[in-house]
Amino acid sequence: AVPRGEHEAAQAGLRAEAATLAQRLGELSRRHEKTCEEVFRVQRQALFMKSERQAAEERLAATQKQLAEAQDEARRLRELHGHVEDSARLVRDRDRKITELSKEVFRLKEALNALPESRGQPQSPADTAALQARVRALEEKLAETEMRHSKVVTLYRSHLLYAVQ
C-alpha cells in the first residue's frame, strides 16, 4: 500500500538512522568501557589509600604507645632520681654525723688521757667511770650510726644500679 519509492526512502532513512544509532551505541560502549576502567582504577586507588590509611593509623598507635611508655619511663626515672638525691643527702648527713661523733670520741679520749697528767693527782674513780661510760656510749652511737650509714649506702647503690638498668 505504500509506494515503492517511499518505502525505499523510508527504508534508507531507517538504515541511516540504524547506522547512526549503531555508531552511537558503539561510541557509548567505548565510553562505558572507559568509564568502567576509570571506576575500577578509582576503586583500586581508594582501596590502596584505605590500606595506606590503616597502616598510618597503626604506625600512629604504635608511636603513641611508645611515647606513653617513654613518658612512664621518664617519670619513673625522675622518681628514682629523687630517691637517689634523697639517699645522697642522707648519706651526707650520716657522714657528717659520723665525723662529728668521731671527733667527739677522739676529743674525749684525748681529754681522758690528758686529765691525770694535767692535774698531777689521780682522778677520782667516779669521774673516770663517768668519762669511760660517756666514751662507751659515744662509741656505741658511732657504731650504730656507721651501721645505718652502711645501710643507706647500700640502698643508694641499689637505686643507682636500678636507674642505670
Name the features.
165 residues; mainly alpha; rod-shaped
Notes on the protein architecture:
This protein has one domain. The longest helix is centred in the middle third of the chain and has 116 residues. The model has no long low-confidence stretch (mean pLDDT 86). With 165 residues, the chain is mainly alpha-helical.
Mean of residue pLDDT?
86
Record field, number of beta strands: 0
The stretches of 5 or more residues where confidence is low (pLDDT under 50) are none
The N- and C-terminal alpha carbons lie at a distance of: 109 Å
Quaternary organisation of the protein chains: single chain
* Number of helices in the DSSP assignment: 2
Described by strand count, sense and barrel closure, the largest sheet is: none
From the helix content, strand content and strand pairing, which structural class follows? Answer: mainly alpha
Shape: rod-shaped
Helix content: over 70%
What is the domain total for the residues? 1
Radius of gyration: 51 Å
As a percent range, the share of strand residues is: under 5%
Order of helices and strands: HH
